[in-house]
Specification:
globular, about 70% helix, about 0% strand
Protein backbone atom coordinates (compact mmCIF):
# COMPACT_ATOMS: atom_id res chain seq x y z
CA UNK A 1 0.00 0.00 0.00
CA UNK A 2 1.09 3.59 -0.47
CA UNK A 3 2.39 5.65 2.43
CA UNK A 4 -0.63 7.95 2.71
CA UNK A 5 -2.94 4.96 3.17
CA UNK A 6 -0.60 3.44 5.78
CA UNK A 7 -0.30 6.70 7.73
CA UNK A 8 -4.03 7.40 7.70
CA UNK A 9 -5.00 3.89 8.76
CA UNK A 10 -2.26 3.84 11.41
CA UNK A 11 -3.69 7.05 12.86
CA UNK A 12 -7.22 5.61 12.73
CA UNK A 13 -6.20 2.50 14.64
CA UNK A 14 -4.18 4.49 17.19
CA UNK A 15 -7.11 6.83 17.75
CA UNK A 16 -9.03 3.88 19.21
CA UNK A 17 -6.57 3.91 22.15
CA UNK A 18 -6.15 7.66 22.86
CA UNK A 19 -5.00 7.21 26.46
CA UNK A 20 -2.37 4.62 25.52
CA UNK A 21 0.09 6.26 23.09
CA UNK A 22 2.56 3.37 23.09
CA UNK A 23 -0.22 0.91 22.24
CA UNK A 24 -1.32 3.31 19.49
CA UNK A 25 2.20 3.27 18.05
CA UNK A 26 2.36 -0.54 18.15
CA UNK A 27 -1.11 -0.83 16.57
CA UNK A 28 -0.05 1.61 13.84
CA UNK A 29 3.07 -0.48 13.21
CA UNK A 30 1.03 -3.71 13.08
CA UNK A 31 -1.57 -2.13 10.80
CA UNK A 32 1.10 -1.75 8.13
CA UNK A 33 1.36 -5.52 7.76
CA UNK A 34 -2.40 -5.99 7.69
CA UNK A 35 -2.70 -3.51 4.81
CA UNK A 36 0.24 -4.96 2.89
CA UNK A 37 -1.35 -8.42 3.01
CA UNK A 38 -4.34 -7.11 1.00
CA UNK A 39 -3.84 -7.40 -2.79
CA UNK A 40 -3.23 -3.96 -4.25
CA UNK A 41 -1.44 -1.97 -6.96
CA UNK A 42 1.31 0.47 -5.94
CA UNK A 43 2.74 3.33 -7.93
CA UNK A 44 6.03 2.60 -9.61
CA UNK A 45 9.36 3.88 -8.33
CA UNK A 46 11.49 4.31 -11.43
CA UNK A 47 14.78 4.46 -9.56
CA UNK A 48 14.25 0.90 -8.28
CA UNK A 49 13.83 -0.53 -11.78
CA UNK A 50 16.51 -3.05 -12.49
CA UNK A 51 17.28 -3.44 -16.14
CA UNK A 52 19.84 -5.62 -17.86
CA UNK A 53 23.39 -5.06 -16.69
CA UNK A 54 25.15 -2.70 -19.03
CA UNK A 55 27.89 -0.18 -18.96
CA UNK A 56 26.53 3.08 -17.61
CA UNK A 57 27.02 6.01 -19.92
CA UNK A 58 26.77 9.63 -18.80
CA UNK A 59 23.18 9.88 -20.05
CA UNK A 60 22.26 6.79 -17.99
CA UNK A 61 23.74 8.35 -14.86
CA UNK A 62 21.86 11.61 -15.43
CA UNK A 63 18.61 9.73 -16.07
CA UNK A 64 19.11 7.63 -12.91
CA UNK A 65 19.72 10.78 -10.85
CA UNK A 66 16.52 12.44 -12.17
CA UNK A 67 14.46 9.31 -11.59
CA UNK A 68 15.76 9.15 -8.01
CA UNK A 69 14.84 12.82 -7.45
CA UNK A 70 11.37 12.16 -8.92
CA UNK A 71 10.90 9.15 -6.64
CA UNK A 72 12.03 11.04 -3.52
CA UNK A 73 9.56 13.85 -4.31
CA UNK A 74 6.73 11.36 -4.98
CA UNK A 75 7.35 9.35 -1.79
CA UNK A 76 7.73 12.53 0.31
CA UNK A 77 4.48 13.93 -1.10
CA UNK A 78 2.73 10.62 -0.46
CA UNK A 79 3.87 10.55 3.19
CA UNK A 80 2.93 14.21 3.66
CA UNK A 81 -0.58 13.61 2.29
CA UNK A 82 -0.94 10.71 4.74
CA UNK A 83 0.13 12.84 7.69
CA UNK A 84 -2.26 15.63 6.65
CA UNK A 85 -5.17 13.18 6.29
CA UNK A 86 -4.28 11.59 9.62
CA UNK A 87 -4.31 15.02 11.28
CA UNK A 88 -7.54 16.12 9.57
CA UNK A 89 -9.52 13.03 10.54
CA UNK A 90 -7.93 11.68 13.72
CA UNK A 91 -6.42 14.58 15.64
CA UNK A 92 -7.76 14.64 19.18
CA UNK A 93 -7.03 17.83 21.17
CA UNK A 94 -7.25 15.90 24.45
CA UNK A 95 -4.53 13.50 23.25
CA UNK A 96 -2.79 15.49 20.51
CA UNK A 97 0.05 13.12 19.59
CA UNK A 98 -1.65 9.73 19.50
CA UNK A 99 -2.68 10.08 15.85
CA UNK A 100 0.90 10.98 14.96
CA UNK A 101 2.34 8.00 16.83
CA UNK A 102 -0.01 5.66 14.96
CA UNK A 103 0.81 7.27 11.62
CA UNK A 104 4.57 7.14 12.20
CA UNK A 105 4.34 3.57 13.48
CA UNK A 106 2.56 2.61 10.26
CA UNK A 107 5.28 4.24 8.13
CA UNK A 108 8.26 2.64 9.88
CA UNK A 109 8.14 -0.77 8.12
CA UNK A 110 8.56 0.87 4.70
CA UNK A 111 11.31 3.10 6.09
CA UNK A 112 13.16 0.03 7.39
CA UNK A 113 12.69 -1.64 4.00
CA UNK A 114 14.11 1.47 2.31
CA UNK A 115 17.13 1.38 4.65
CA UNK A 116 17.69 -2.27 3.74
CA UNK A 117 17.52 -1.52 0.01
CA UNK A 118 19.91 1.38 0.50
CA UNK A 119 22.53 -0.31 2.68
CA UNK A 120 21.83 -4.06 2.31
CA UNK A 121 22.77 -4.44 5.97
CA UNK A 122 22.39 -7.98 7.25
CA UNK A 123 20.58 -6.87 10.42
CA UNK A 124 17.69 -5.53 8.32
CA UNK A 125 17.66 -8.52 5.96
CA UNK A 126 15.39 -10.65 8.16
CA UNK A 127 12.91 -7.80 8.55
CA UNK A 128 12.97 -7.21 4.77
CA UNK A 129 12.29 -10.91 4.10
CA UNK A 130 9.43 -10.96 6.60
CA UNK A 131 7.90 -7.73 5.27
CA UNK A 132 8.25 -8.35 1.55
CA UNK A 133 8.46 -12.11 1.12
CA UNK A 134 6.13 -13.31 3.91
CA UNK A 135 3.57 -10.57 4.59
CA UNK A 136 3.30 -8.49 1.41
CA UNK A 137 0.61 -9.73 -0.97
CA UNK A 138 2.00 -11.62 -3.95
CA UNK A 139 -1.09 -10.66 -5.96
CA UNK A 140 -0.77 -7.33 -7.69
CA UNK A 141 -4.02 -6.00 -9.09
CA UNK A 142 -4.00 -5.54 -12.85
CA UNK A 143 -4.80 -1.81 -12.80
CA UNK A 144 -3.08 1.31 -14.01
CA UNK A 145 -1.30 3.27 -11.30
CA UNK A 146 -3.97 5.95 -10.88
CA UNK A 147 -6.79 3.43 -10.54
CA UNK A 148 -4.57 1.37 -8.23
CA UNK A 149 -4.11 4.33 -5.89
CA UNK A 150 -7.86 5.10 -6.02
CA UNK A 151 -8.61 1.49 -5.07
CA UNK A 152 -6.25 1.79 -2.11
CA UNK A 153 -8.13 4.84 -0.83
CA UNK A 154 -11.41 2.98 -1.32
CA UNK A 155 -9.97 0.07 0.70
CA UNK A 156 -8.89 2.56 3.36
CA UNK A 157 -12.40 4.05 3.58
CA UNK A 158 -13.98 0.59 3.87
CA UNK A 159 -11.52 -0.51 6.58
CA UNK A 160 -12.03 2.67 8.59
CA UNK A 161 -15.81 2.26 8.30
CA UNK A 162 -15.51 -1.34 9.53
CA UNK A 163 -13.12 -0.30 12.31
CA UNK A 164 -15.32 2.47 13.66
CA UNK A 165 -18.60 0.72 12.85
CA UNK A 166 -17.59 -2.32 14.88
CA UNK A 167 -16.35 -0.05 17.67
CA UNK A 168 -19.78 1.56 17.98
CA UNK A 169 -21.54 -1.80 17.82
CA UNK A 170 -19.35 -3.20 20.60
CA UNK A 171 -19.47 -0.18 22.91
CA UNK A 172 -23.11 0.84 22.46
Amino acid sequence: MILSVHATFGAAVASLMPTHPLVGFVLGFASHFVLDAIPHKDYKLISLDTGPDKELKLIDLIQKKFSLIRDVILVSFDALVGLILAFMFFFNPEHPFVFLLGAVGALIPDFLTFLYLLFKHKSLGHFFDFHINVIHSKTELNLNQVLGVCCQFFTLAVLIAILFGSRYLIFS
